[in-house]
Each structure stands twice: as structure tokens, then as C-alpha cells.
Amino acid sequence: MKTILTVFLFFLTSTIYSQFMVENTYKLWHIYADNCDPLQTYTYYIKSDGDTIIGADSCIKIKEGNNSPYYWSNYSFIREANGKVFLKCSPQDILLYDFNALVGDTIHLLNVNLIVGYIDTEFYEGRNRKIMMLYYEGDIFDPFHCETWYEGIGSLCGLLYPGEYGLIGGPHTLLGYAENDTAMYYTTITDNKTLINNNTFQVYPIPANHKLHFSHFDNNNKEYRIEILNVNGVIMDSFKILYNGDIEKNIEAYKSGIYFYKLYENSKLIKIDKIIIEQ
Q1: What is the DSSP string of 122-136?
Q2: DSSP letter string over 112-173?
Q3: Pair 126, 13: CB distance under 8 Å
Q4: N or C: which end of the chain has fewer CB within 10 A?
Q5: Rounded distance, CA 146 to CA 131, Å?
Q6: CA 14 – CA 110 distance, rounded (Å)
Q7: Arithmetic mean of pLDDT, 105-126
Q8: How far apart are CA 77 and CA 61, in angstroms?
Q9: 4: pLDDT strictly greater than 50
Q10: Burial of 57 (0-12, 13-18, 19+ CB in 10 A)
Q11: Mean pLDDT of the chain, nearest integer
């Protein structure tokens, strides 16, 4: 079981409705895939790759990179029309989001029906931004166990996976979203089945400027690996840390901003959290 803590969220500045179609905007989604086998959990990236025209539709081209922002493979297209977002498919496009739906409305996705249980807004950058909470048809609305959509970002299950919040054995979780190299949203994930906690593993100081420490104190005789990434998912550093060890990293070359670290036990990803650097 994993623990997910949503840490902060800034909203986008753009047009009305779901706001995926924003010109001259580079978007990057970082997603965590949780499999039944803990050794097969992994993260991957989806990025926007420019606008294009398919038939009569204006679309965004999106690419997928498996655990690295350097290697992009699969690609697809999404389009937006009157508050609805579709995945381009043949012979018929697939509905991903409907930001025009009202409380009580049923949204018919490809393999599941979602009912809108709650709608709220947050005021940012001159206008209100919509937040929607949804639940499976036939269930009772529970704000602590539902799916959340944000205008301009999509589902917290990941851009292409609305309707997955209740799946067992492999749901996706949105780790972070960046726009034009600026972090808009991120979460913290910890695997509760490990012995790692705030007492045995620490990263300090936060915020950091010239030096950053990674400390691990316990008696489990295991070796861990740490990756430091920027908001675009680029790995800035990778190193190992032994039990009962402390590593000091020189970060003077890092620009001020938000970074992330991933903690691995062997090849298993067990923790993701943020680092704030102020130079």
C-alpha cells in the first residue's frame, strides 16, 4: 500500500473550459504506475509535442517516455471541444473529460461511468478554475475515496487514465505536472510496506542552498539508491547510500526552484518527495 500526499497545486492561465489547448505551452505529466508486484512499479512521462490538424480538428500531439524524459516512444493526439477532451481514435474519438458536467450528471467514459459528486472552484490568475470529484455509478459518493479532475491538468490518476481511482492491481497516480518548466502540481508517495520513514531517512536542510544531506540510519543492512530530478524529469544526480550513512551533495550549480528525489530499495521505488533549493 502506498501513501499519497498532495502537497500543492497552482492553476493554469489560459482559455475557458479544460484549457488543454494552449498555444506555445510545453506540458509535462509525471505518472506513477502501481502494480501488484512491488518490483514492477515504475514512473513514466507524458509530454505535449506541439499542435497539429487532423481532419477538421485542432489537436495536441502527446508522447510517452518510460521513466526518462530523454526517450520518447508512443504518441497519440487529444482534442478539445466545448469543455470536453477526447483521445483521437478510429473510427470514433474516446471521451476523456467533460468539464461541462454538473453535480449528479453521469459521464460515460470508455469502460466506466462516473457520476459528478462535487464541483468547486479556486480563484487564481484572474479567474475561477474548476475542480471536480467523481465516483463510480452505483457507488455512494465519498470525498475521501473518489476521483479528482483539475481544469488544464486532468485526472489525478494521470492524463490518459480517468476512471481508474478504484482499480486494484495497477492504478496510475499523477506525481507531478509542469508547464513551461514551472511546477504546477506534485504529490508525495511513500510505500508503507518498507521500513523507510521520517526517523530513519532524512533529507535536509529544506530549503537548501549550497549543500544537501541525505541520511539513513537503521539496522536493516540494505543499500539504497537516490535520484535527484528537476521539474522536467531530467535526472540531475544519481548515487547510492548505505544503511547508517550520510551523504553530502554540493548543489551550488543548481538553480533555485523545486526538485524531486526518488528513493529506491534495490530496483523498487519506495519514496518520492520534493526538494526546495534557494540560492
Answers
A1: EEETTEEEEEEEEEE
A2: -EEEEEEEEEEEETTEEEEEEEEEETTS---TTSSEEEETTTEETT-TT-TT-TT-SS--EE
A3: yes
A4: N
A5: 13
A6: 28
A7: 84
A8: 5
A9: no
A10: middle
A11: 78
The full length of the chain comes to 279
Strand partners, 4: 189
**What was the pLDDT predicted at 10?**
39
Q: Enter the C-alpha cell of residue 126.
A: 484572474
CB-neighbour burial class of residue 72 (10 A; exposed 0-12, middle 13-18, buried 19+): middle
Q: Which residue has the higher pLDDT, 99 or 265?
A: 99
Q: How far is CA 250 from CA 206, 208, 247, 260, in A?
A: 14, 10, 10, 16
Q: Look at the alpha carbons of 87, 135, 64, 177 in this order and tell me if their dihedral is positive or negative.
A: positive
Task: State mean pLDDT over 106-112.
Answer: 92
Range with the lowest mean pLDDT among 2-11, 177-186, 229-238? Answer: 2-11
Render pLDDT for 241-254 as a digit per residue (tens, 0 to 9): 877 778 899 999 99
Q: How far is CA 156 from the centre of its chain?
A: 7
pLDDT tens for 59-96 read 888 888 875 555 677 678 999 888 899 999 878 899 99
Q: Characterise 54 by phi-psi region: left (phi > 0), alpha (psi -120 to 50), beta (else).
A: beta
Please say whether the beta carbons of 195 and 243 come within 8 A. no
Sign of CA dihedral 47, 50, 52, 57: positive
Residue 171: cis peptide before it, omega within 30 degrees of 0: no
Asked if 113 and 137 touch (Cβ cutoff 8 Å), the reply is: yes
